[in-house]
UniProtKB/TrEMBL annotation:
Major localization listed first in the record, in broad terms: cytoplasm
Family: Belongs to the CutC family.
InterPro entries xref list: CutC-like, CutC-like_dom_sf
Keyword match Cytoplasm: yes
Stated name of the protein: PF03932 family protein CutC
Annotated source species: Hafnia psychrotolerans
Presence of keyword Cytoplasm: yes
Classification via Pfam families: CutC
Domain of life: Bacteria
């Protein structure tokens, strides 16, 4: 069965994804940064409220994936916290300054993770050699790699995704970035068993009073009265399409 992981930026979105049929949630904060580590309160509530597997991202900041020693210490503390809260897995990725998988740091992370399933996130798409990276992550024992095939979106990266999937004898290759209802069959057709999507839309704020001329953002064009949320109808439609595709493949 092809699994659908949904990227969620709140517990409410995670619950929406669960109710719509998602198989797993990647839990993040800060969509503008591409996802950073959720707060302790968010982690605790998600563990209490969400029944499907939740894999929090562990990323101390936005930007690149080459971390200072203090950032790495923060990252390790967050991994330990997520482990101790009882999550079944997490999402992480570290590169060195030359664009290689940072094996010494990743070995420390893997040792901290105990029996949690580790997804190496789209830091993989920034590494200098994806085939060497795949070999290294296989050695580390990561469960899956979230990747767009080293392209801006996964549909453009289909060729690389196919090749990685054929080469991988260990980690699951999970397509992410621009995976949506209109193109998901393309990823199924190349043999991928897991897909990752935000499956969302912008929703307006519930605020009726809106103070003019004052913003909390350094980007003065940023709309503070809307936010990105998971769309349950989109998740449900994607799961229905995947289930139909699975049924066709079994009867073919």
């Amino acid at each position: 069965m092809t699994k659908l992981e949904v990227c969620c930026y709140s517990v409410d979105c995670a619950l929406t994804a669960e109710q719509a049929g998602a198989d797993r949630v990647e839990l993040c904060a800060s969509q503008a940064d591409g996802g950073i580590t959720p707060s302790y309160g968010t982690l605790k509530l998600a563990k209490e409220k969400v029944a499907i597997p939740v894999h929090p991202i562990v990323r101390p900041r936005g930007g690149d994936f080459c971390y200072s020693q203090s950032e790495f210490e923060v990252l390790k503390s967050d991994v330990a916290c997520i482990r101790d809260l009882g999550f079944p897995g997490l999402v992480v990725g570290i590169l060195d300054s030359e664009g290689h998988i940072d094996m010494p740091k990743m070995r420390e992370i893997m040792a901290l993770c105990s029996d949690m399933a580790v997804t190496f996130h789209r830091a993989f798409d920034m590494c200098v050699n994806p085939k060497v990276g795949l070999e290294q992550l296989t050695q580390l024992g990561v469960a899956r790699i979230l990747t767009s095939g080293q392209q801006q979106n996964a549909e453009v990266g289909l060729s690389m995704l196919r090749e990685l999937n054929q080469l991988s004898g260990g980690p699951i290759i999970m397509a992410g970035a621009g995976v949506r209802l209109t193109n998901l069959q393309k990823f199924v057709d190349i043999g991928l068993s897991e897909l990752h999507s935000s499956a969302g839309r912008q929703v307006p704020s519930s605020m009726r009073y809106r103070k003019a001329g004052v913003t909390m953002s350094s980007d003065t064009d940023f709309d503070e009265f809307s936010r990105y949320c998971v769309d349950g109808d989109i998740v449900a439609a994607m799961k229905t399409a995947l289930e139909f595709s699975d049924q066709l493949s079994r009867t073919a």
